[in-house]
Amino acid sequence: MLSKNLEKALNDQINFEYYSAYTYLAMSAYAEEMDFPGAANFFKVQAQEELDHARIIYNYVFQKGGRVELEAIKKPRVSYDNILDVFEEGLKHEQMVTKRIYNLADIALDEKEHATMSFLRWFIDEQVEEEESFSNLVKKIKRASDSLANMYMIDDELATRTYVPSIKASEQA
Ligand code: FEO
C-alpha cells in the first residue's frame, strides 16, 4: 500500500517521464531540421527509453494497489542555439531527473517504504548511466565543434544507437 504522498510523487514522476520523452522527441526534431540524422536517431531512442521509464512506474503504482492519474504533458522546448546546446540541455535535463528520483527515494526512506526504496534503486543506477552518457557526448561535441568533418563523424556514431527496451527485474517474469 502506498501513502497518498508517495502515490502523488510517483504519479508526478510518470508525468515527468512522459515530458522527458516529449523533450527528447523535440530535440530529435531539431536535430533532424539541422541535418544531423544521427543525433535525431539518438534522441528518438532516448525518447523511447523515457516511455519505458513511465511505463515501469505506472506498472509499479498498480502493483502496490495505488491509483494512476495521468496529467497533461507540458510543451517541451522546441528551439536551440545549435547541436551542442541540445546535448547540454539533455545533460541538464538528466541532472534534474536525478534530483527528482533522489527526492522520491527520500520520501520512501522517510516513510520506511522499503519496497519503493528497492524499486527506485534501478532508477538511481540508470541515472548514473544517463548523466555519464550525456556528459561524454557534450565533451566530445565541444572538442569537435570547430570541424564540420568531426561533427559528421560523431553524427555517424550517434546513428548506430538502437532501442533496447528497459525491463526491470519485476517485469521479467
Ligand atoms: Fe527517465 Fe532519462 O530519465
From TrEMBL:
Record-given protein name: Ferritin
Domain Ferritin-like diiron: 1-145
Listed EC numbers: 1.16.3.2
Function: Iron-storage protein.
Keyword flag Metal-binding: yes
Locations listed in the record: Cytoplasm
Primary location group: cytoplasm
Pfam families xrefs: Ferritin (PF00210)
Organism superkingdom: Bacteria
Enzyme class: oxidoreductase
Keywords annotated in UniProt: Cytoplasm, Iron, Iron storage, Metal-binding, Oxidoreductase
